[in-house]
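Page 37, continued from 36.
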């Protein structure tokens, strides 16, 4: 699909031509399952491009990640690149909210899934609680599309492994949850570990086939 840059300000819907083969759920309160959102995000993008389904545990390679139930963006890029794709990190921390929205849409229009390091402030029913809670729980989600009325009003289609099946957004074309632009940017601003550049807020990983 060829899309002019001005189209990101018009009313339309865009869905990536690749999609995860399944949406893996990350149970709460299970020590073995907690903190594996990174490997689940990787399983989603690898499966989207390859058409295969493999256990997310195959992508949890680092002993410190297994011990602490955490994967850094740097490790995520390494693992994705070792699995036949080309991933790169970026940081949108200096951009305004509007610029961040436009950045994500431009990446998606390249047929590129975008993994975000966000702060997870949602409870088990999918309701946002507090920003202070979100800052304590770094989490990975992946964007696979968006719809909009204009450049500021719309929603992103997301795969979030912490969303229970009964809380999926019904009838969306891709992902398991649709969230408004503003909510996604808020969560993104709350992600990471402030003060540490490589783990700071507004980090993202874009994924493409290797050239």
């Amino acid at each position: 699909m060829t899309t002019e840059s001005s189209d990101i300000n018009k009313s339309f819907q865009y869905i990536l031509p690749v999609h995860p083969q399944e949406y893996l759920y990350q149970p709460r309160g299970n020590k073995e399952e907690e903190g594996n959102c990174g490997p689940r995000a990787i399983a989603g993008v690898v499966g989207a491009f390859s058409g295969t389904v493999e256990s997310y545990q195959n992508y949890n390679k680092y002993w410190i990640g297994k011990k602490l139930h955490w994967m850094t963006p740097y490790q995520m890029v390494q693992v994705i690149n070792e699995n036949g794709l080309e991933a790169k990190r970026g940081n949108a921390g200096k951009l305004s909210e509007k610029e961040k929205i436009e950045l994500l849409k431009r990446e998606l229009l390249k047929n590129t899934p975008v993994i975000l390091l966000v702060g997870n402030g949602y409870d088990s029913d999918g309701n946002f609680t507090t920003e202070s809670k979100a800052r304590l729980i770094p989490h990975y989600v992946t964007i696979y599309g968006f719809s909009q009325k204009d450049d500021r009003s719309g929603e992103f289609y997301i795969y979030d492994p912490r969303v229970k099946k009964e809380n999926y957004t019904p009838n969306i074309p891709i992902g398991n949850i649709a969230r408004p632009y503003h909510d996604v940017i808020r969560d993104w601003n709350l992600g990471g570990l402030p003060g540490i550049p490589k783990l700071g807020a507004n980090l993202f990983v874009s994924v493409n086939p290797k050239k």
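Confidence is low (pLDDT under 50) at residues 1-5. Flag for discussion at group meeting. The radius of gyration is 16 Å.
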